[in-house]
Write a structure and sequence with these properties.
Homodimer. InterPro entries: Aa-tRNA-synt_II, aa-tRNA-synth_II, aa-tRNA-synth_II/BPL/LPL, Lys-tRNA-ligase_II, Lys-tRNA-ligase_II_N, Lys-tRNA-synth_II_C, NA-bd_OB-fold, NA-bd_OB_tRNA. Keywords: Aminoacyl-tRNA synthetase, ATP-binding, Cytoplasm, Ligase, Magnesium, Metal-binding, Nucleotide-binding, Protein biosynthesis. This protein is α+β, with helices and mostly antiparallel strands and about 500 residues long. It folds into two domains: about 150 residues, Nucleic acid-binding proteins (OB fold (Dihydrolipoamide Acetyltransferase, E2P)), CATH 2.40.50.140; about 260 residues, 2-Layer Sandwich (BirA Bifunctional Protein, domain 2), CATH 3.30.930. It is about 35% helix and about 25% strand. The protein has 16 helices and 18 strands. The chain has an eight-stranded mixed β-sheet with strand order 6-10-11-18-17-16-15-14, sandwiched between helices. A five-stranded mixed β-barrel has the order 1-2-3-5-4. The longest helix has 29 residues.
């Protein structure tokens, strides 16, 4: 049997039926739109005479007892999420953008027979509706507006999804606007993200950091080990890269005398997408002159803990599944080599040979592409240690081979002063004592170029302009980077696509 002859599955029939029903409803609603316009009314007026909002009315008059009146006349608008037409009295539930709702009661006694008939004929679920009338409490004690005037504020020509049925993940991701209409959690995430960003900026301001903006289009990609997106500038007739990190430009700012600098930005990495990775994501990076990886770890802990206070009112946050997670106190700091040695049951040091590490990787079934000492150590550490890190933990002191922008450790040969912060088993951020020696930085870039020539698509490119900036002198500094989307994951327990308002989907 060919594909053309294969009978449709039950799910395909359901989808087709839903599409046909939506198309039919659209036709009916478009006819109502035409009738509205033909009658001299407006289906999409430029404005309606609102005097207040649904949340404001609830705050002012939520105390009304059943059958009590306020004496206050209001004009407000919202989206219709419930509609019941019964005889001479219609009940409408209006929803504001924050999810607050209020009942509107449209009665023939108050609006007239003709107006009520028009209401029943022309108004649908999903429409934005303006109503004017007195704020009252119904006989059942529901806060309401007893309508004397009504007007369509925006006619919806497609029906809303069933408000009593949970949207599929596919619909939530592709049609986030529907998710925002029907689901409290989606609306709350937008507010949580805004509170988080405001908290980050507040903490930085209290420490005299300045927020700057750096280029998204770059002639040389750098600042991270990642595969870039490539584009072309017609104006300059040159290949450009979407930013994978703002690091090299923020360090130029430090060279120029902006001693404490940060940026909340969009980064783009042409890599895989999963529950903790997105090709486009929000990143925070900050650099502090005369700091190091210890001072920047303290700053990062404060940033995260203050964000938790802003969002949850406590260092203990409650995740979507009900789990309570404690972000308070002083966070653990462990050594990468020490924790790997303890977990593997053998001593592993910066001097352990590639052959010995490869033997261990083969024994454990750990595959490492273009293996060197640093990559083997990091992959083995992830295999043996990562999953057991449940409480907030700074993993300190990384192999030099995998950290080309980081200062060599002040007392341990073969490692650099770098940490990664892990929250409940996933990496939240990273911090460095920054490499500011232009001679050593050039050597590191040259080594990266060799790796790129050998086929490493994530290796950095030699950036002569950045090296020139370093040659003018960059003060000793600490730097950090943290994914904003991942910070939201730590605060809410949700996957990365839930934390992004409009995630990229295929």
């Amino acid at each position: 049997m060919t594909d053309a002859q294969t009978p449709p599955t039950e799910s395909e029939l359901t989808a087709a039926e839903a599409a046909a029903e939506a198309s039919e409803q659209k036709a009916v609603r478009l006819a109502k739109r035409e009738k509205l316009i033909g009658s001299g009314a407006e289906a999409y007026p430029v404005s309606v005479p609102v005097t207040t909002t649904i949340p404001a009315v609830r705050a002012a008059w939520g105390h009304l007892a059943a059958d009590e009146t306020s004496g206050e006349i209001v004009g407000l608008a919202g989206r219709i999420v419930h509609l019941r037409n019964t005889g001479k009295l219609c009940f409408v539930s209006l929803q504001s953008g924050d999810g607050s709702r209020i009942q509107a009661m449209v009665s023939q006694a108050n609006v007239g027979e003709e107006s009520l008939a028009d209401f029943k004929e022309l108004v649908d679920l999903g429409d934005h509706l303006f109503v004017k009338g007195e704020v009252i409490s119904s006989r059942r004690g529901e806060l309401s507006v007893m309508v004397t005037e009504w007007q369509i504020a925006s006619k919806a020509v497609l029906p809303l999804p069933n408000l009593h049925t949970e949207l599929s993940e596919e619909t939530r991701m592709r049609s986030r606007y529907l998710d925002l209409i029907v689901r409290d959690g989606a609306r709350q995430m937008v507010r949580t993200r805004a509170l988080t960003n405001a908290s980050l900026r507040k903490t930085f301001a209290e420490r005299d950091f300045l927020e700057v903006e750096t280029p998204m289009l770059q002639t040389i990609h750098g600042g991270a080990a990642a595969r870039p997106f490539v584009t072309h500038s017609n104006a300059f007739d040159t290949e450009l890269y979407l930013r994978i990190a703002p690091e090299l430009f923020l360090k130029r700012a430090v060279v120029g005398g902006i001693d404490r600098v940060f940026e909340i930005n969009r980064n783009f990495r042409n890599e895989g997408a999963d529950s903790s990775h997105s090709p486009e994501f929000a990143m925070l990076e900050a650099y502090e002159s005369y700091g190091d990886y210890n001072s920047i770890a303290e700053l990062t802990q404060t940033l995260v803990q203050n964000a938790a206070l802003a969002v949850a009112g406590s260092h203990v946050v409650t995740w979507a599944d009900g789990t309570e997670y404690d972000l308070g106190g002083e966070w653990d700091r462990i050594s990468m080599y020490g924790s790997l040695s303890a977990a593997a049951g053998i001593e592993i040091t910066p001097q352990t040979s590639v052959a010995e590490l490869q033997k261990l990787a083969d024994r454990e079934g750990v595959e490492v592409h273009l293996a060197n000492h640093g990559k083997l150590v990091e992959e083995l550490w992830e295999h043996f240690v990562k999953a057991d890190l449940t409480s907030p933990t700074f993993v300190m002191d990384f192999p030099v081979e995998t950290s080309p922008l980081t200062r060599a450790h002040r007392s341990i040969e073969g490692v650099v002063e770098k940490w990664d912060l892990y929250i409940n088993g996933f990496e939240l951020g990273t911090g460095y004592s920054e490499l500011v020696d232009p001679v050593i930085q050039r050597e590191r870039f040259v080594e990266q170029a060799k790796q790129a020539a050998a086929g490493d698509v994530e290796a950095m490119r030699l950036d002569e302009e950045f090296l020139r900036a370093l040659e003018f002198g960059m003060p000793p500094s600490g730097g950090m980077g943290m994914g904003i989307d991942r910070l939201l994951m730590a605060l809410t327990g949700l996957g990365i696509r839930e934390t992004i308002l409009f995630p990229l989907v295929k």
